Amino acid sequence: ALPSTLTHNFNHYLLPLAFPSTSPPPAEAVNLYAFLRFGPEVRQSIAAFGLPIWPFCVGAALAGSFAFLAFSAVQGGGARFGSCLGASAVTLALLAFYARTYPSRELGFVIMFIPIRMAAEHALAAIGLVSLFGSIVSGGLRDGIAHGAHLGGLLFGVGFHELLVRGHFRPRRS
Question: Which residues, in sequence order, are CB contacts of 139 under 8 Å at separation 6+?
Fold first, then answer.
């Protein structure tokens, strides 16, 4: 059995739902790192409004799946690529929410063995452009990357943040 603190910290991230067995190990490692890096602060930010994290995670996964299917259908992939319900959309939604909450915080990435550091808001814009370009050019999963799911997660994270800070989400009172 896992220690209660570990179980408590991961339960609301819906890890069993978010990590499909078809993801390659490097992708799972990146997603897990992002969950650990952005998840606690995003959870805390959402909890400050009296809301749990699970609707955010489920919504991000569904938004990513919808975007993936939409780009696949437009590009002619259709059912050939199936659906895409995984950690990538949730991970990028967490990153987007984090970047909107802490725009000037510096994030580090390694791309093709080159370390890159930039402000969170610039990282969000760069990843968004790459995801949009990849979604348009490759459609579904032709290059092995679910760009549409990434884009759906990013848009969900930004949208959820904007709706939350503008007061459109309120917890239910019992």
Answer: 71, 72, 74, 75, 76, 77, 148
* Report field, pTM of the whole predicted structure over 0.70: yes
Give dist(CA 91, CA 32) in Å, integer: 8
CB 85 within 8 A of CB 110: no
Tell me the pLDDT tens digit for each residue of 56-100: 999 999 998 888 888 777 666 554 555 566 688 899 999 999 999
Q: Round to whole Å and give the CA distance between 59 and 91.
A: 12
Beta strands, E only, the chain: 106-111, 114-119
Q: What is the DSSP letter of 78?
A: G
120's tokens: 């969170």
At 41, the amino acid letter reads E
Residue 98 CA, distance from chain mean position: 10
142 and 169 Cβ atoms separated by less than 8 Å:
no
Would you say 107 and 118 are in contact if contact means Cβ atoms under 8 Å apart? yes
For 108, residues 6+ apart whose C-beta sits below 8 A from its C-beta are 115, 116, 117
3-state SS track over 59-72: HHHHHHHHHHHHHH
Comparing CA positions, the residue from 4, 124, 140, 22 lying closest to residue 72 is 140
